[in-house]
Design brief:
about 260 residues; alpha+beta; 3-stranded antiparallel β-sheet; disordered C terminus
Length: about 260
Amino acid sequence: MKQYLEELHKLRIFRLNDVENLVGNLNSAKDLLQNYKKQRLVCQVRRDLYVVTDLASKISLANKFEIAGKITPTSYLSYQSALEFHGLAHQVFYDLWVSSSNRFNSFDFEGIRFQYCESKSLSGVIGASASTFIQVTNLERTVIDCIDKIERCGGLEELIQCFSLITYLDEELLLNYLQEFNKQFLYQKVGFILEHFKQEVKLSDNFFSVCKQKLGKSTRYLTDLTESTHYFKGWKLCAPTNILSVLEQGGENYV
């Protein structure tokens, strides 16, 4: 029965129909999978998604990013998980944010929670050079997404810590994604937050001018009312007094 194991190791991540194609019969494929699972030669990630295991440790040979890319035909890494993939994570998280046009139920596998997010757009979704399995938002799209939903980046403190590691952003791409999402509050938040990193990420005055042109008359809060106590007139936004203070104090508190 182990004659097919080498072929499955080549696939690494596979579905029942892949095994059926390999053995030529659906029932035989089910029996093979059941047998391999008992021997811990393969493990089941979720319904109709399997990975081969390391023969010694019995741990999945596919990493969490690769598994995320195979959950659905349209799944890709997003939000904090995309930042992590791009090497910008500040903390370790056990939630993996996975956007997809095809809905799936969030699930746990090997200590990781694979969290479903509805995909609003495929703009800026790229294939990773490191693996053919992985799809991920590019850096500019990731920045826009994380500012749009700061809670999916681990909160404002984590977002600021991650953004402090970025050395360049393509402002044309940023503006394209902002235009596509067309959300006034998002222009407001993006302009306010990225202004703190203007020199580091090499954004022009024109970028912030465009963002300010989209401001409405309403005053918004960047975070909750108890934390966002200072009013920034130029952005019509209430926010913590100094969001960069987390960098100066090692990520402790906003001052």
